[in-house]
Design a protein that fits this description.
Largest interface: A-B, 49 and 63 residues
Distance between the termini of chain B: 8 Å
Shape of chain A: globular
Structural class of chain B: mainly alpha
Oligomer: heterodimer
Strand content of chain B: under 5%
Number of domains of chain A: 2
Largest sheet of chain A: 7 strands, mixed
Distance between the termini of chain A: 96 Å
CATH superfamily of the largest domain in chain A: Periplasmic binding protein-like II
CATH topology of the largest domain in chain A: D-Maltodextrin-Binding Protein, domain 2
Order of helices and strands of chain B: EEEEHHHHHHHHHHH
Helix content of chain B: over 70%
Number of helices of chain B: 11
Strand order of the largest sheet of chain B: 1-2
Number of domains of chain B: 2
Radius of gyration of chain A: 26 Å
Number of strands of chain A: 10
Number of helices of chain A: 16
Strand content of chain A: 5-15%
Chain lengths: ~375, ~475
């Protein structure tokens, strides 16, 4: 005789117990780890850089001195496509980084850091961090350089051929003067072009507001529409200036200094209103495979002896303290380079340089889009 | 269902056991009676006739509770009740843990950090302001920018502190004073700068008054110290919060565990079964919850203490170092302005001591690396400052001024921003530790309900398995 009521059997019980204990086991986990990412030697390093910052002999030297295999790619050609193609996919998680160091300009680095896309620097293996020029440490977006190290700095001023402009260009307003219409180059980086226009308007690009930035952009736009600019230029301004296509152009100091070596008659001016200063950064993307190697590379770059080699080759503004003294001590051309204000700006020069300040991201995107639309005029 | 054995007609042979009404085991055959049914039931092997009558007792009859199934059910109800009480205590304890971690995460922690950052901003503004004053007509744009940025950061930090301190009147009063001193300070600093540019001798007096507003008695630094001290004591309270509730939960769980063990002993004696799997698992649930609660408490203590000792204490040390360094820088600038080398800062040794303390408190290679950078930056600045002092003594204020506003400011900025990066790294470490304490509690709230519930279900199921055998 068996009861007809459904009964809770041992089999039922075991099934239920198994399910619940699985949930309980799940509940037991959940603590996130604290602490630093461990430093593991992989002896491999993948670097993405702008073209022509380092000569390839230096890469060989680094490989030998640091015992690393370096995959060095000069594929970062401008910040807009560089960000879209190389950085954004990593930030959004659509791709894992296939590079351990990338060298975007500071405002892109600002975005990466704000979005949590940068690894903090392992300071214990970068003692040469102490050699960062303090002028690069005061940025509100990365006070004290916790997430990036300045790579090379530069100024965007005016390069010109005195023979073609009939005299000197001393101010941005001279560059915008209609007598140079059709013979002027416009730099293709929004913050530099608009920054110079803001200075010409009497505004401070280091403290931009949506209104002052828009006024600067509007001024550029009017000049583009009037056909004042013949070309949008990046580092190709060198060729246009050398062959006379352009009489004057907004120009980067490093390339201008290199051009002057061949054409001493060409001039590079920091306008009376001021020039735009900028710097590219070395940044490790979140999830970089060769964290330790990247840190060793950065430390190597901040050894003043090594930095002196690099500065002597690329002629950009060197952010490494002690480099000027190393060059002076070498005498000859090196000593002359140490006194070049385009590579080592003196206090007066520095006081005339303006770093683009930060606007809210929406405004910056809108300005970028409007600036990019100007490229159509030059196609 | 209750069954009474009324009569056994003939004595049973020795190997026939009466297991219990209404179940008879006759010759290894289970015989079961229904209500109202009367035997004889015949055992074919032994020719034994058993006669029994099955009756239903009244609802309130004490007999109802004397039967084995009723006793088993009573046990299960008592244990379930105890488990409910334990669940309530465990939930209270969990809630107390979560509240204390939430408070540290949302109030105490951010207030402590924002207060230190506010102190940093005020001190930085003061040092930059004196540097700007020193640069005179050759306005040092970088220092002016640092001054303006620090002054514009401070109100937000003040707001952050204010929203996080809750209803502590003393802290609010102190903050109110800072809120009124800050714009007054900015006004005096700007007036001093303009007066200096105009060659007005009142400029230095204004600068001194601005300086008093920062570092003088009841100045901004003093007032922020009140907030820090009050919040620090709140942090200590948060560390202890939840301990009493934890004791309550553990006692409730221990009593439940004891009763569960007794129940199993009783069941084993009554049913001759070695163990009852659901009850054993229910026991593990109770033990598991007790261990989980204890580990959560210990882990939370550990995380919050780590936040305090490894991160917050370093934040406090770093902020103190920063303040000392700003005082040094301001004193240096004032001695140049007043052209009096005897006023040159004397707290260099205190700064070195602070750096040593910071190095001693470093708990990782990375932190040691950061403090090493800090020391190198300070040494660099101190060397420049000594040159400034020598220049002031030997050549007067012009040479000293030139050196101070060029190399001196740059080296000091290097030191100051490195201090700030250490401060930010410690802030991140603090937030990580508090977040980790929060993560420990993530599932505990659910576990404190689910595990006792599960144990109760297991208990009921375990007893039901036995009770079923009587049907």
């Amino acid at each position: 005789m068996h009861s007809s009521r459904s009964r809770f059997t041992r089999r039922d019980f075991l099934a239920a117990a198994g399910a619940v204990s699985a949930v309980a086991a799940l509940g037991g986990c959940g603590r996130t780890g604290i602490g630093n990412r461990p430093l593991v030697s992989t002896q491999q390093l993948n670097v993405v850089n702008w073209p022509e910052y380092i000569d390839l002999g230096t890469i060989t030297r680094i490989q030998s001195e640091l015992n690393l295999t370096v995959d060095y790619r000069e594929v970062y050609e401008d910040n807009v496509t560089g960000f879209d193609d190389l950085i954004a996919p990593v930030l959004t998680g659509a791709a894992t980084p296939d590079y351990d160091i990338i060298t975007p300009t500071f405002w892109v680095a600002d975005r990466i850091i704000a979005d949590g896309g940068a690894e903090p620097l392992p300071l214990e293996v970068i003692p040469n961090h102490v050699n960062i020029d303090p002028a690069y440490l005061i940025n509100d977006w990365d006070r004290g350089s916790r997430f990036q190290m300045p790579w090379q700095g530069g100024m965007t001023g005016i390069a010109y051929d005195p023979a073609l402009v009939d005299g000197e260009i001393e101010s941005i307003n001279d560059l915008f003067n209609s007598r140079l219409a059709g013979k002027v180059g416009l730099v293709g980086e929004m913050r530099e072009a608009v920054g110079l226009a803001m200075l010409a308007n009497g505004d401070d690009p280091s403290r931009p507001t949506p209104r002052t930035a828009q006024a600067g952009l509007d001024r550029i736009k009017r000049l583009v529409e009037q056909g004042h600019f013949a070309k949008i230029v990046f580092d190709d301004f060198v060729g246009f200036l050398a062959d006379g296509t352009l009489a004057a152009t907004m120009a980067w100091s490093g390339q201008a200094a290199a051009l002057q070596a061949d054409r001493p008659d060409l001039e590079f001016a920091i306008p009376v209103e001021g020039a735009i200063s900028w710097f590219d950064t070395m940044i490790m993307p979140r999830g970089a495979q060769n964290y330790l190697s990247a840190a060793l590379w950065m430390n190597w770059m901040y050894n003043p002896e090594n930095a002196a080699e690099i500065s002597a080759w690329n002629l950009y503004v060197c952010p490494v303290l002690g480099t000027q003294d190393v060059l002076r001590s070498r005498g000859g051309e090196s000593a002359a380079l140490a006194e070049n204000p385009l590579v080592f700006p003196d206090a007066d020069t520095r006081n005339r340089l303006f770093n683009w300040g930060t606007l809210d991201r929406e405004t910056e995107r809108s300005l970028e889009a409007e600036f990019d639309s100007l490229f159509a005029f030059f196609e | 269902m209750l069954v009474e054995l009324v009569e056994i007609v003939r004595p049973l042979p020795d190997d026939i056991a009466v297991i219990g009404p209404p179940l008879f085991d006759l010759c290894g055959i289970h015989c079961r009676l229904s209500v109202g049914e009367t035997t004889p039931t015949v055992c074919v092997f032994y020719d034994v006739v058993v006669t029994a009558t099955v009756a239903r007792p009244s609802w309130l009859s004490p007999d109802r509770f004397r039967t084995t199934p009723a006793r088993l059910r009573t046990w299960s109800v008592v244990i379930t009740a105890l488990l409910s009480v334990a669940a309530v205590f465990a939930s209270f304890a969990t809630q107390a843990f979560i509240s204390s971690v939430d408070k540290v995460e949302r109030n105490t922690g951010p207030v402590l950090i924002s207060t230190q950052r506010l102190v940093g901003s005020i001190a930085e503004a003061d040092a930059a302001n004196t540097a700007v004053f020193l640069s005179g007509t050759e306005l040092d744009r970088q220092q002016q920018s640092l001054f303006e940025n620090a002054i514009s950061r401070a109100p937000q930090q003040l707001e952050d502190v204010s929203t996080g301190i809750g209803d502590d009147p003393e802290s609010h009063e102190a903050l109110k004073r800072v809120a009124s001193q800050l714009p007054e300070y900015a006004r005096l600093a700007e007036r001093a700068r303009l007066a200096n540019l105009a060659g007005d001798p009142s400029a230095t007096a204004d600068l001194q008054r601005a300086f008093e507003l920062v570092s003088g008695p009841n100045g901004m630094i003093d007032n922020t110290r009140i907030v820090t001290s009050r919040t620090q004591s709140g942090f200590d309270d948060d560390l202890k919060s939840g301990n009493l509730e934890w004791v309550g939960a553990i006692v409730a769980l221990a009593v439940t565990l004891l009763v569960l063990l007794l129940a199993q002993r009783n069941l084993r004696a009554r049913t001759r079964r070695t163990f009852n799997l659901p009850l054993v698992l229910a026991t593990f649930c109770v033990i598991g919850l007790g261990i989980w609660l204890s580990l959560a408490l210990l882990g939370r203590q550990q995380d919050l203490q780590s936040a305090q000792t490894e991160a917050y204490d370093s934040i406090a040390l770093t902020a103190k170092l920063q303040t000392l360094a700003f005082e040094y820088k301001t004193a240096e600038a004032l001695s140049i302005i007043e052209e009096d080398a005897s006023d040159f800062p004397t707290n260099g040794a205190a700064i070195k001591t602070q750096l040593k303390l910071l190095l001693d408190s470093a708990d990782s290679d990375r932190e040691e690396g950061a403090v090493g950078l800090l020391q190198a930056r300070w040494d660099r600045y101190e060397t420049t400052s000594q040159k400034v002092e020598s220049a002031l003594t030997a050549n007067g204020s012009t040479a000293a001024r030139r050196l101070a506003i060029s190399e001196g400011n740059a080296d000091f900025n290097g030191f100051n921003t490195t201090v700030e990066s250490v401060l930010l790294a410690n802030r991140d470490q603090f937030n990580d530790a508090v977040a980790s304490a929060g993560h420990r509690m993530r599932w505990l709230r659910l576990g404190a309900i689910l595990l006792p519930l599960l144990a109760a279900l297991l208990t009921l199921a375990g007893y039901q398995l036995r009770i079923n055998e009587y049907w």
